[in-house]
Amino acid sequence: MKITVYGASSGQVKDIYVETARQLGTIMARRGHALVNGAGRMGLMAASAEACMKAGGQAIGVIPQFMIEQSWQHKGMSQLIVTRDMHERKERMAELSDACVALPGGVGTLEELLEIITWKQLGLYLKPIVVLNVDGCFSPLLEQLQLAVDERFMRPFHAQLWQVAETAEEAVSLCETTPEWDKNLQKFAAL
């Protein structure tokens, strides 16, 4: 599998986030999965990619040209794909992936996560999406999404568009298992 991993580019986050990103990359490599991310040279993006490669896995980075011009790219990725812009970057990362995992992050990570959930709701991305809720970091967002369901901004079954993991091991396992909801989406999309 190729698993897209969204996560912070900040290098100033708590150790528990960095350690979980490393665990995720290591577990992915040990299970034979390639990691796809935004090719950032710092933060959780770098930690997960470096751990994956250190454990013998492949890390594919997708980054827009303007970020290379700023020297924001990780220069040790197994493969680097350069895009025109952020929109093409996100589209390419989704195209490459068999599943997505969101590590904690800022607005960029949140935007990527919410966009891929929206794509799944629209039938444009029919693969597992896992929110890795490290140290409760995503709990407020998950509560907001539940509020959106409760207030009828979303239908109750839309809460099945994503799954929540508490550990890196659980996140990879959820990526490897297609939930019944996803199977039904895939059948519907094939019609």
UniProtKB/TrEMBL annotation:
The keyword Metal-binding appears for this protein: no
Keywords, comma-separated and alphabetical: Cytokinin biosynthesis, Hydrolase
GO cellular component term, pick one: cytosol
GO MF annotation, one: AMP nucleosidase activity
E.C. number(s) listed in UniProt: 3.2.2.n1
GO biological process: cytokinin biosynthetic process
Class of this enzyme: hydrolase
InterPro entries the record matches: LOG, LOG_fam
Catalytic activities: AMP + H2O = D-ribose 5-phosphate + adenine
Pfam family, one: Lysine_decarbox
Top-level taxonomic group: Bacteria
Family the entry assigns: Belongs to the LOG family.
NCBIfam families in the record: Rossman fold protein, TIGR00730 family
Protein name per its UniProtKB record: Cytokinin riboside 5'-monophosphate phosphoribohydrolase
